[in-house]
Automatic annotation (TrEMBL):
<feature type="transmembrane region" description="Helical">
    <location>
        <begin position="208"/>
        <end position="230"/>
    </location>
</feature>
<dbReference type="InterPro" id="IPR007110">
    <property type="entry name" value="Ig-like_dom"/>
</dbReference>
<comment type="similarity">
    <text>Belongs to the immunoglobulin superfamily. TIM family.</text>
</comment>
<keyword id="KW-1133">Transmembrane helix</keyword>
<dbReference type="InterPro" id="IPR003006">
    <property type="entry name" value="Ig/MHC_CS"/>
</dbReference>
<keyword id="KW-0472">Membrane</keyword>
<feature type="signal peptide">
    <location>
        <begin position="1"/>
        <end position="21"/>
    </location>
</feature>
<dbReference type="GO" id="GO:0060097">
    <property type="term" value="P:cytoskeletal rearrangement involved in phagocytosis, engulfment"/>
</dbReference>
<keyword id="KW-0812">Transmembrane</keyword>
<dbReference type="GO" id="GO:0001786">
    <property type="term" value="F:phosphatidylserine binding"/>
</dbReference>
<keyword id="KW-0325">Glycoprotein</keyword>
<keyword id="KW-1015">Disulfide bond</keyword>
<dbReference type="GO" id="GO:0043277">
    <property type="term" value="P:apoptotic cell clearance"/>
</dbReference>
<dbReference type="Pfam" id="PF07686">
    <property type="entry name" value="V-set"/>
</dbReference>
<keyword id="KW-0393">Immunoglobulin domain</keyword>
<dbReference type="InterPro" id="IPR013106">
    <property type="entry name" value="Ig_V-set"/>
</dbReference>
<feature type="domain" description="Ig-like">
    <location>
        <begin position="18"/>
        <end position="135"/>
    </location>
</feature>
Length: 231
């Protein structure tokens, strides 16, 4: 009877496999990702060997072994990107993946070998390496359309545009941080610029003064001639 129970227990272990817990670790491409794993060390007798491998923990050892340690130092390492940076003698056997890539995503097994039959500590990790999120601010384009009043000519619009472009940076108003807020504001600006351009023609005809001067000289010469004739 006892042998029958023992045989059933052994078969149950063989077919079901060891009980393994699973955790999820999420990292970003290009960053160092740490997959945690540890065991309790009360004294030097508790220090033991362990391994990391890809895929789930098998019935013994590690599948696709990445790294081995005897508890004191690393004894086997298949890739320099996989490191044990923790204090091994204190039971910190966390795996660090340096400069992670999307290909590093998958299941990892941490197996700590304790003394005794079927006494190993098993821990599966599902590692997900995602692309880094890059936030780019899209440029904002402000478009302002000015509509002229009925009866206004395209020549006025051309004058306003030409006058606005001729303003230097030192003469520009300091409070203007963007386009006009409404149609009324835009019309006010247009009216001011047009009023400024209206006063310019008086300064662009200096020949009127020349004509007046010539006329005055002619009258003076006529008067002078009459005075000489009479005398």
């Amino acid at each position: 009877m006892l042998s029958y129970v023992c045989m059933n227990w052994i078969l149950l272990l063989l077919f079901t496999g060891p009980t393994v817990s699973e955790e999820v670790v999420i990292g970003e491409v290009g960053q160092d990702v740490t997959v945690p794993c540890s065991y309790t060390v009360r004294n030097s007798d508790d220090i033991t060997s362990m391994c990391w491998g890809r895929d789930r923990c098998p019935f013994s050892k590690c599948s696709e072994t990445i790294i081995w340690t005897d508890g004191w130092r690393v004894t086997e390492q298949h890739n320099s990107r996989y490191l044990l940076k923790g204090d091994l003698q204190k039971g910190d056997v966390s795996l660090t993946i340096v400069n992670a890539t999307e290909a590093d995503s998958g299941t990892y097994c941490c197996r700590v070998e304790h003394r005794g039959l079927f006494n190993d500590q098993l821990l599966d990790h599902k590692v997900v390496i995602q692309k880094a999120r890059i936030s780019t601010a899209s440029p904002h384009t402000y478009t302002s359309e000015q509509t002229s009043d009925p009866g206004s000519t395209s020549e006025s619009s051309f004058t306003v545009t030409r006058t606005w472009l001729s303003v230097s940076a030192s003469e520009a108003p300091q409070t203007a941080s963007g386009p006009c807020s409404g149609t009324a504001d835009c019309l006010d600006v247009t009216a001011n610029l047009q009023n400024t351009s209206v006063s310019l023609p008086s300064e662009q005809h200096p020949e009127y003064g020349l004509y007046i001067g010539i006329g005055s000289c002619a009258v003076f010469l006529v008067i002078l001639g009459l005075a000489l004739f009479l005398t």
